[in-house]
Amino acid sequence: MLRSYRFSFGPWNIHEGADPFGPPVRDSVAFGKKIKEYKKLGFDGVQLHDDDAVPDLGQLSDRDIIRKANELKTVLDGEGLVAEFIGPRLWEDSRTIDGAFTSNDPACRDYARARTRRSIDIANVLGTKLIVLWLAREGTYIREAKDSKVAVDRLVEAIDDMLSHDPEIRVAVEPKPNEPMDQAYIPTTGHALALASRAKSPERVGVNIESAHAVLAGLDPSDEMGFALSFGKLFTVHLNDQNGLKYDQDKTFGTVDLRRAFNQVRLLDRYKYGQNGEFVGLDVKAMRTQKQDLAEKHLSNSRTIFLQLLDLSRNVSDEEINALIVERDYEGLEMLIMNQLMGQTVVAAR
């Protein structure tokens, strides 16, 4: 068991509250002001998209990109923060409307690869070797639009291009079954690890498991994490919560299903996640109706809930759990866990 964990979140988690059906409900917060809040909230790591780190990078020369990245590194160092990862934002450009690496247009595929290589260069300046790859538009709205076999081959080629560009970087694929695409090509942890197995350096390709994405796939997040841990492939996590098979909600961790959150924390702690420097990453967003001056509570609340569940998990009796398993008394086991979550002692049924 680790004595302490390091936590991270991305600047997009302090947001304006816009949704597809309405305008923003909070004022935008400047990036520099967001960075000032990290330590106050108990966080040490900053998750970054490439254009979070270097705004408007598409209009900059390679030299200017590196200069801007160095300026950010100075800011992070001054705040006592580190960059956890860089993720190429490949879903908001007109050239990636029909996919990035799997686009039917070779010029668009070339753009996606070039931008990803620039993201790796930014990561090197910021001192991180982790690249998170969310394959947002790698899928289709209709199956006939792309050849799925060819699409997967192109994803492997793109990852190999990343690995060749830098012999030390690691790639964490972030699976998600849908949104923005109707059906994505890499929807689950199993798909991501199968993709990794075909890479030129499979040991350098793993996963970033997001709780909500697993729920959207109809799966339990702790099972997905256990699967990745079994293969030694859990490079990072995005903890949050999700209310059923809806849009990706990014709710405060543990607020929808506390027991589901408990099992994620328990699994990560049991198998010493974090011992190699991994962060407990959050990807949570404030409720749209939250007031401007209270729009950071979702971050501190998520961290607090993780730590409280960690304490509950470490104080549940493994001896009692194992005894109930041996007796195949799963109702008893369920009540043991529920009592722990409710802060109750075991009482005789009346």
Per CATH, the superfamily of the largest domain is: Divalent-metal-dependent TIM barrel enzymes
Give the CA-CA distance, first to last residue.
38 Å
SS class: alpha/beta
Radius of gyration: 21 Å
Q: What is the architecture of the largest domain at the second tier of CATH?
A: Alpha-Beta Barrel
The domain count comes to: 2
The strand order across the widest sheet is 3-2-1-10-9-8-6-4
The major pleated sheet works out as: 8 strands, parallel
Number of helices: 12
Order of helices and strands: EHEHHEHEEHEEHEHHEHEHHH
Approximate shape: globular
* Content of β-strand: 5-15%
Low-pLDDT windows of residues: none
Helix fraction bin: 40-55%
CATH topology of the largest domain: TIM Barrel
Question: Can you describe what's shown?
Answer:
This protein has 350 residues and is α/β, with parallel strands linked by helices. It contains 12 helices and 10 strands. It folds into 2 domains: 7-315, TIM Barrel; 318-350, no CATH class. The strands form 2 sheets. An 8-stranded parallel sheet has the order 3-2-1-10-9-8-6-4. A two-stranded antiparallel ribbon has the order 5-7. The relative contact order is 0.11.
